[in-house]
Q: What sequence folds into this?
C-alpha cells in the first residue's frame, strides 16, 4: 500500500482481494470514510486510529486474531465487518479494563 499518504482527501478506498498482508500508510488519509480491505491476508489491525472520520471498515475474510484497543478512537465508525477471521472471545477484547 504505497503512496497512500499522498491521497489526503481520499474518502473511499477499496483494496479488497489484493493479497495485502499489512495495513500501512493510511495515517494521512484523515478524510477516509469507507475502507474495504476484505479478502486479503491481514493479521493485525493497525494504522487506523487517526482515521476519525472512518464510518465503514470491512476487514472480513482476513487472518485477524485480535481487535486492538486503538479501535476506540474510531468515533465515527458505525459499520465494522470482521466475519471469516481468526477471532476468538471478542467480548473479552472489547471489555474496558479497570
A:
Amino acid at each position: 500500500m504505497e503512496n497512500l499518504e499522498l491521497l489526503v482527501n481520499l474518502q473511499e478506498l477499496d483494496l479488497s482481494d489484493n493479497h495485502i498482508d499489512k495495513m500501512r500508510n493510511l495515517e494521512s488519509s484523515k478524510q477516509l470514510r469507507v475502507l474495504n480491505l476484505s479478502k486479503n491476508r491481514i493479521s493485525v489491525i493497525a494504522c487506523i486510529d487517526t482515521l476519525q472520520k472512518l464510518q465503514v471498515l470491512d476487514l472480513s475474510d482476513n487472518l485477524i486474531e485480535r481487535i486492538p484497543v486503538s479501535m476506540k478512537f474510531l468515533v465515527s465508525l458505525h459499520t465494522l465487518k470482521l466475519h471469516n477471521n481468526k477471532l476468538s472471545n471478542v467480548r473479552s477484547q472489547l471489555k474496558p479494563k479497570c
About this structure: The chain has one helix and four strands. The first strand starts at residue 12 and ends at 14. Residues 90-94 form the longest helix (5 residues).
